[in-house]
Write a structure and sequence with these properties.
Elements (H helix, E strand, L loop, with lengths): L1 H8 L30 E3 L8 E3 L5 E4 L9 E8 L7 E8 L3 E3 L10 E10 L2 E2 L7 E5 L12 E2 L8 E8 L10 E4 L5 E4 L6 E8 L9
Parallel strand pairs: 2-9
Antiparallel strand pairs: 1-3, 3-6, 4-5, 4-7, 7-8, 7-9, 10-11, 11-14, 12-13
């Protein structure tokens, strides 16, 4: 379905140029319901790589089609190098004038471009003339954890409590790895927990040795 629409419209998302007379921007197919605009508004700017956003689940917003609006819209988001061969989102139908990107679609440190299409009474507009570009921030590693506070010598297989702290610049959850003996030979790893000061309960390794 998408491939047929692309071939019919003859519009290149990457260059923004139509092969219909070399016109820059949008060409309208015969029988389309309107020539009115429905531009993407946010997030992003009209040149790449665009603004950096803080979230992987942004809300995309656009202006409603004039002349009675649209029945629904289709949203297309591609990653760099932009184009339909690199689509990460092909969402339709979308009702209203906003849509929130679900978890798992965007990743940190990527550049994206998005535009859309309007549909009414069985007829399709061309892709929106305006394409918006944005990029997601690079995920930073967590800070070095503080020295654990707790038992310095323990019996193998015994459960002990330790307090340590590590924060993540992006606010992501962190996990801790405890090295029994300090040589990397025997370790214990926690699950992911909110960053900050944590009291953790761990079973000591098979050797009685200091923890690091």
């Amino acid at each position: 379905m998408l491939r047929n629409e692309i071939q019919y419209s003859r519009f290149d998302l990457r260059s923004g140029k139509s092969d219909l007379g070399g016109h820059q921007g949008v060409q309208w197919k015969k029988g389309n319901y309107s020539k009115s605009s429905y531009p993407p508004l946010t997030p992003g700017i009209i040149t790449g790589p665009g603004i950096t956003i803080e979230t992987l689940t942004p809300t995309l917003q656009w202006a409603a089609s004039e002349g009675g609006g649209a029945d629904y819209y289709s949203i297309y988001v591609s990653k760099y190098p932009y184009g339909f061969s690199n689509l990460v989102i092909d969402q339709s139908p979308v009702y209203g004038t906003s849509w929130s990107v679900p978890i798992g679609k965007l990743v940190n440190g990527e550049e994206y471009c998005w535009n859309m299409q309007a549909h009414k009474a069985g007829k399709d507009s061309e892709y929106s003339e305006i394409r918006l570009y944005f990029q997601t921030k690079v995920n930073e590693p967590p800070n070095t954890p503080s020295t654990p506070y707790g038992e310095t010598d323990g019996a193998p297989g015994t459960l002990y409590a330790y307090t340590t702290s590590a924060t993540d610049p992006d606010g992501d959850e962190v996990k801790f790895t405890f090295d029994w003996g300090g040589d990397g030979g025997e370790t214990s790893e926690t699950g992911f927990v909110p960053s900050g000061s944590k009291k953790l309960y761990l079973t000591a390794g098979p050797v009685s040795a200091p923890i690091s």
